[in-house]
Amino acid sequence: MSEHVLILGRASSINVRKVLWTCDEAGLPYTRQDASAEELAALNPNALMPVVRVAGRVIWESNTICRCLAGIAGRDDLLPRAPLERAAVETWMDWQATELNPAWRDAFMGLVRRAPAFQDPARIAAGAREWNARMAMLDAQLDRTGAYVAGPGFTLADILLGVSTNRWLMTPIERPRLPAIEAWLERLAVRPGFLSHARNGIP
């Protein structure tokens, strides 16, 4: 019997949504619950969502959670065991966290969240250009593979970047037309998890 997963965090959170989609793809039963800042801080020193309880253990950091859940489910298609194949997936998972996420911060926080500290028009414009440049890198990779982010098969990299791409599309900035991304999104559209947790109207 599959392990039951308790996911603590709002369903609107981009990092919670990637975990929800991973559970759907992996066939893992789960329950999601909202959690207060105090509850999160008691489990995660960063006090950030999501936090997951599974098999009596607590896990935080959303990309690590996705890796762990794929392993629990025995889904080597989502995250291969062979080192070189695994590295092809994890390269783009890490790129999402270290390169793409910082690129969208100024534009997203200023235009969608309307955060007072992110209202400098020059910073927003520069952030939008940087974000578009990173998305063009993803488009080039998808053009090379002709299918999914890490190669011919769907993996965790597509989950993470599928949710991130939805944020890019939902933020009111000027965007270049990126045909490989457009074709990839249509391939993802046959997956219920994508429709529920990425193409769901939430940036």
TrEMBL record:
Annotated coiled-coil segments of the chain = none
InterPro entries registered for this protein in UniProt: Glutathione-S-Trfase_C-like, Glutathione-S-Trfase_C_sf, Glutathione_S-Trfase, Glutathione_S-Trfase_N, GST_C, Thioredoxin-like_sf
What superkingdom does the record give? Bacteria
Q: Where is the GST N-terminal domain?
A: 3-77
Q: Matching PROSITE patterns, A to Z?
A: GST_CTER, GST_NTER
What Pfam families does this protein's entry cite? GST_C (PF00043), GST_N_2 (PF13409)
Q: Name one GO molecular function term.
A: transferase activity
Task: Provide this UniProt record's keywords sorted from A to Z.
Answer: Transferase
Residues of the GST C-terminal domain: 82-203
Q: Note the PANTHER family from the entry.
A: DISULFIDE-BOND OXIDOREDUCTASE YFCG (PTHR44051:SF19), GLUTATHIONE S-TRANSFERASE-RELATED (PTHR44051)
Protein name as catalogued:
Glutathione S-transferase
Q: What is the organism of origin for this protein?
A: Rhodovarius crocodyli
